[in-house]
Amino acid sequence: MQITEKTIDNYSCYIADVVNSTWNGDKFPGSFGPTKVFEFVDYWTLRKRSLQLFKENLYAKGIIKRLLRNEIFTGIVGTSTVNSMILWPKMDDQAREEKGIVFSEMLTEQFKIYSESKNVFDYRKRMTFGDFQEQVRFESIVCGDGIIVSRINQQTGLPYWDWINGNYIKTPASYQPRSGNIIKDGVELDKYGRHVAYHVETWKNDELVMERIPCYGEKSGRVISWMVYGTEKLIDDVRGEPLLACILYMLKELDRYRDAESRAAVVNAMLALFVKKSPSATVGSRPSDGLKRLNTLDAEPQNGNVSAGPAQRDMRIMEPGTIFDDLAPGEEIQSFQTNRPNVNYGAFEQAILSGICWALEVPPEIAMLKFQSNYSASRQANNEFQVYLNYRVKKNARNICQPIYEEFVIQSCLNNQIDVPGLITAVFTPELWKQKAAWLSCVWTGLSRPSVDPLKEVNASQKSVDAGFSTYDIECRKTSGLGFRQVMQTLARERKYMAQIGFVPHADEDNNGKPVYDLENFEGENTEAAMSNLYELQKALEKNGKSSKKLEEAIMQLTDVMENLQ
Question: Residue 519 to residues 97, 380, 554: CA-CA distances in angstroms?
Answer without folding.
Answer: 27, 46, 9
